[in-house]
TrEMBL record:
Domain of life: Bacteria
Protein name: ASCH domain-containing protein
Length: 110
């Protein structure tokens, strides 16, 4: 099932930019990034500090569907910790269960 994705709204080099998040990706504790737009295509490569990471999945998810596994993939222990982290980065942003985000899953390139 290869559904057609809408056009990207940003470029992959903007997917993971905060130093703390980059460190989590490099350490292997962050394997997904949620954004309110689509930043990458499946198979696209992201470069972080000389390391390459390939996007393996891109799909939409509502915030209310987030699981502990999703939070861990984002480099956090709990959904609440992940939510608090996002809200600290985006002051004034509402956290609405029905709000849809784009999930970008990636892994270190071989």
């Amino acid at each position: 099932m290869n559904e057609t994705l809408p056009p990207k709204t940003c470029s992959i080099d903007r997917l993971v930019t905060k130093e703390a998040e980059v460190s989590k990706v490099l350490a292997g504790s962050k394997t997904a990034c949620r954004r309110n737009g689509r930043y990458a295509d499946i198979g696209e490569t992201m470069e972080l500090n000389g390391n390459s990471f390939t996007v393996t999945k891109v799909y939409q998810q509502s915030l209310g569907e987030l699981t502990v596994e999703d939070a861990k993939a984002e480099g956090h222990e709990t959904v609440d910790e992940y939510r608090d982290s996002i809200l600290s980065i985006h002051p004034g942003m509402p956290w609405l269960p029905q709000m849809k985000v784009w999930v970008h899953e990636f892994q270190k390139a071989e």
